[in-house]
Amino acid sequence: MKRGIPKPTVQIALSDHEQSIEKFLSKTGTFKHDDLLVNKDGLRIVSHSKQGEVQLIRPLDNNLALDDMDMVKVVGNGSAGIVQLVRHKWTGQFFALKVMQMNIQENARKQIAQELKINLSSHSLYVVLCYQCFYDNGAISIVLEYMDGGSLSDFLKKVVMIPERYLAAICRQVLKGLIFLHHEKHIIHRDLKPSNILINHRGEVKISDFGVSAILASSSELRDTMTGTYKYMPPERISESKHGYISDIWSFGLVMLECGTGKFAYPPVDSYYDILEAVVENPPPFAPPDQFSKEFCSFISACLQKKPEDRQSAQLLLQHPFLTKHDVSKIDLASYFTNAAPPLATFNDNK
Ligand code: ADP
User: Fold this and answer.
1) pLDDT for residue 240 is more than 90
2) Protein kinase domain location, by residue (predicted)?
3) Cα 205 to chain center, whole Å?
């Protein structure tokens, strides 16, 4: 997909925009939090004068309006809502539109607004681009870069398990995404799982959905439908409600082990309480040494340490022998993704 849509624009003079500010603020259904406004027309950042008057509004991307998106098909059904492939009427560009109902507590809404602001300002090759978001009729819609291979969760359903050398190439990209989030944006993903790692026919692997799902999951109404999120939570978050950057490494280790073995690392249980108990009480899962290389086993063990201080950072993991022993330039993820699980939902299918 080409990246033709311009990046967020800078602030504009008040005089030119007095009327549009009035119009924007008067829209019914505007969701406000601090300097953020989200409504049917998108997300705006507002500045206030000392007297508290609205001085200017920075649009993030005026070229995208919800009404200009034609629905092509539903591509995913997440725990908080559906994901649709949509096409921009005027440019023909494809996007993924994630729609989440917002009948949740005020506090969670505020956090979501903050997370959306971070999402919109995150530009990395290893993170799914977020172009704009809208709030209308009680639903938040997020316009995302469309990843035509779907998620690792979709891919695993087709291939069952991923051979080590491809896994090494996938790990490298996910770790680069984590390094970007942890070191450049200073944010914790909090919800890394197979459905939040997306792939495309170019062999790209990108992290999606940081923050927002985790907040929704902690809202009591959605808790029961979001057990997916709990399965990948690190022990320290469950037992002490504590989490740092290194918490993402636990989730990452579980995801990679699942990709290698073809099944979730803990045995199936009945409720999310049982999952939490198993994570806190049981010894950490590991890669069986009779099925995997010693490098992969050691890599998984560097991630799946119950004490956060014993886990390796994303930066250190990037130097791990499991990754350095494979020559990435010879690993053709693009062909692997395309040949292993045809047909991908490529743009051509939808013309
Ligand atoms: P969850 O709620 O489990 O985190 P999501 O709602 O984020 O899951 O995504 C559900 C599914 O929607 C994914 O497994 C994937 O198939 C699809 N999907 C999500 N985002 C995109 C995207 N940007 N491009 C293509 N497909 C996507």
Assistant:
1) no
2) 69-323
3) 11
Contacts of 187 (CB under 8 A, 6+ apart): 118, 181, 210, 211
Q: Do 236 and 247 meet the contact criterion of CB atoms below 8 Å apart?
A: yes
pTM here?
Answer: 0.81
Q: What is the pLDDT of residues 151-161, one digit of tens each?
A: 999 999 999 99
DSSP code of residue 151: B
Q: Domain residues for 140?
A: 66-145
CB–CB of 173/205 below 8 Å? yes
Question: Which of the residues 191, 224, 248, 327 is marked catalytic?
Answer: 191
Q: What confidence tier does 12 reach under pLDDT thresholds 50, 70, 90?
A: very low
Q: Same domain for 195 and 324?
A: yes
Among the candidates 145, 162, 192, a domain finishes at: 145
**Ligand 1: nearest atom to the Cα of 77:** 10
Q: For ligand 1, say whether the CB of 200 is within 6 Å of any of its atoms.
A: no
Q: What is the pLDDT of residues 62-87, one digit of tens each?
A: 567 888 899 999 998 877 778 999 99
CA of 77 to the centre of ligand 1 (A): 7
Per DSSP, the three-state class of 202 is coil
Rounded distance between C-alpha atoms, residue 171 and residue 189, angstroms: 16
Q: Are both 125 and 47 inside the same structural domain?
A: no
Alpha carbon 191 to its chain's center: 8
Q: How far is residue 113's CA from residue 30's CA, in Å, rounded to a whole number?
A: 12
pLDDT, mean over the chain = 79
327 counts as catalytic? no
CA 76 to chain centre: 14
Per the structure, the count of domains in the chain is: 3
Is 214 part of any domain?
Answer: yes
Q: Above 90 in pLDDT, residue 141?
A: no
CA separation for the pair 238, 281 (Å, rounded): 11
